[in-house]
């Protein structure tokens, strides 16, 4: 067995957060970041969009759970058990609650990034999940965490391993940010064309330059003129661009039911299994051919996921069938506020018939096709970036245990990381 040390040996602090109400504090709409376990992920990323907030007075009361730069945040309970991330200066000041452990590594004894990567190792994560699989309330306590054993390597090697793996994570993060920009572009075009009726309104306001009419969406003047010509120059009595009619979501797409698939019945495979919270596992058989859209039906009501690959939607979601372009359907669904349509107080649920009654313009195929041409190109770029992210993540997860065990040399690992990027 390789030489190891425990987290207790190399941490100056192993504690957990505090719920504000237990000290007389409260949450706020804005203020000091409060990082819950929902913000953590198995890949080590921390979703800042899911942060809650507390006011300064509450933050000062929560002294035990104040987070420092390079602290490791480790989810210790529930469905998020085993997810972790490394706190950065940009997130601070910040606090967390009792479902998240704070591990403060002594930088003279170990690299916090190295320890974070070890905790993210899929094999280690699975070993933790297996150890509590039979528990009614899956959790690990602070004593358990202190006994976690990590391969003992020289500090210089730990830092170099973290740098190699970090270079892959940096590329993954760059691709994610690029995809966020591409998504925002597609969303903005859809809203301008089909919600705000921008091209028609700009014609009404007297715009004559086709690039101005199209809001600068395209740069080639001939293409801009083609697109501008597709849009009416006035609004009809129904408030829509002349010639457009008002229909309902059921005129555009079908929300088909997913199919139950218990975890014990899943066979390890390459097809993602979707629930209302996103990918919840894998199976060796797909139910739906991609690309398609998954819509949360039970649990996380109205959640939306695009999937290019074939996949298996379970019975807590709908998936979309349509003769209309799938990209149009995706961005249309984003404008309907489905997440606000919960119809069941006990178990959150989205009623399909209620969704079908949502009003939407019915537009000619030429304009829909033009949108598909632009949005489809953006989605192709997003798909390519996602594929590279998967390659980078697989390389990182392959290298991680091999580097820590000494099975692969640092120089060889650097080459593999460069090739993957």
Number of strands: 19
Strand share of the residues? Answer: 15-25%
Q: Could you list the spans in which at least 5 consecutive residues all have pLDDT below 50?
A: none
Instruction: Let me know the CATH homologous superfamily of the largest domain.
Output: DNA methylase specificity domains
Overall spatial form: globular
How many helices? The count is 13
CATH topology grouping of the largest domain: Adenine-n6-DNA-methyltransferase TaqI, Chain A, domain 2
From the coordinates shown, what is the CATH architecture of the largest domain? Alpha-Beta Complex
- The percent of residues in helical segments reads 25-40%
Overall mean pLDDT = 90
Counted up, domains total: 2
Structural class: alpha+beta
First and last CA, distance: 33 Å
Q: Tell me the radius of gyration.
A: 25 Å
Strand sequence of the main sheet, in spatial order? 2-9-6-7
| Biggest beta sheet summary | 4 strands, antiparallel
Q: What's the CATH class of the largest domain, please? A: Alpha Beta
Key descriptive features of the protein:
421 residues; alpha+beta; Adenine-n6-DNA-methyltransferase TaqI, Chain A, domain 2; 2 domains; 4-stranded antiparallel sheet; 4-stranded mixed sheet; 19 strands; hydrolase activity; Type-I_RS_S_subunit; endonuclease activity
What does this molecule look like?
- With 421 residues, this protein is of the alpha+beta class.
- It has two domains: 4-152, DNA methylase specificity domains (Adenine-n6-DNA-methyltransferase TaqI, Chain A, domain 2, Alpha-Beta Complex); 178-378, DNA methylase specificity domains (Adenine-n6-DNA-methyltransferase TaqI, Chain A, domain 2, Alpha-Beta Complex), CATH 3.90.220.20.
- It is 38% helix and 18% strand.
- The chain has helices at residues 7-10, 56-61, 112-120, 122-131, 142-146, 155-195, 198-204, 210-213, 221-230, 326-334, 352-356, 365-405, 410-420, and strands at residues 4-6, 11-16, 27-28, 32-35, 52-54, 72-75, 84-86, 94-96, 100-105, 149-151, 245-248, 254-257, 271-275, 278-283, 292-296, 304-307, 312-313, 317-321, 359-362.
- It has a four-stranded antiparallel β-sheet. It has a four-stranded mixed β-sheet with strand order 3-5-4-8.
- Helix 6 (155-195) packs antiparallel against helix 12 and helix 6 runs parallel beside helix 13.
- The relative contact order is 0.10.
- It is an enzyme of class 3 (hydrolase).
- Residues 4-183, 241-318 form the Type I restriction modification DNA specificity domain.
- Belongs to the type-I restriction system S methylase family.
- Keywords: DNA-binding, Endonuclease, Hydrolase, Nuclease, Restriction system.
